[in-house]
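Researcher: Next sequence.
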Amino acid sequence: MRIAIVGAGVAGLAAARDLHRQGHSVVIYEKSKGFGGRVATRRVGPYTFDTGATSIAPRGKSIEQVMLHELDTSELVLVEKPIYAHQYGRIFPGDMARSQVPRYTYLGGNTKFPKLLAEGLEVRLESTVDRLRATNSGVEVFGESFDAVILTPPIPQSEELLATIGETRRFANVRYRPCLSVLLGFAAEMPEVRYHAIIDTEQRHPLTWLSLESVKCPFRAPAGHTAMVAQLGPAYSRQFFDSPDLAIIEDTVSQIERLYGPNFGTPDAAEVKRWRYSQPETTTTFESVNRPGSRVLVASDGVTGGRVELAYEAGVMAAKLLSESVTV
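Model: Next structure:
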């Protein structure tokens, strides 16, 4: 088969990798300049930040065998310290089960993982697919004929593509949350802490998640400096999504200063990353939106869940369903 995949995020790369290894011809179209989607890394001056997924937890899924045993592990780092919780300015040990889940990152940033997955695959970057065309023999993308297409963008964007060929799927209950990620570098050393990240388990505080990047992994900041990624909660992110960067940064730094003191009141580097479709708050199921024999499959995180290992699983399921359609 000749298969087009829309999106070079983890789901798209997982599907492409499996299909390519089975001997199928695969072309991936990616609108941005790089791989990984929301597994993204950004460098600002001397600091390195994972702006989306701040770690990867395999949890026994398909991704585990690939990441730990099939791909290059020379830059893979096991995150040693757990996740703590925070409420009302107080930081304390959180859910022990969550803390004990093995989590990994890469020395140069998590974007290393999708780059490894993409090796040997045909990926056409800066190629925005805004329509499909159904034909008697398959589906056309940019005028090229394919036997099947796998859509991996967030559900709202996948719906738009399906509409161009007159198709609808059972997406009514799928909703996404936005997220403002604030990247902060400080010319101050973080005091010794027992955790690499803190989470607001109630999801009510503006500061929902804080990853101490330079605690999580070596070389994320110069000696004596600290790098951190603050992810702001859904209510705050919805209200202030289009606010000026400076206002968002000032709000975030005020929260950081309350937690860690005046040394963290003035950042050395700061940027805002906006994720309009950060992760699904509600999902549907892969089986309910993908019929056996369909020429267009949906492998978005909206059919599995927002975590990296679940996105990878969506790609694996799409590849399996297409392969089975050939052998039946």
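Model: The domain at 40-110+175-282 is CATH 3.90.660.20 (Polyamine Oxidase; Chain A, domain 2). The chain has two domains: 1-31+127-172+283-328, 40-110+175-282.
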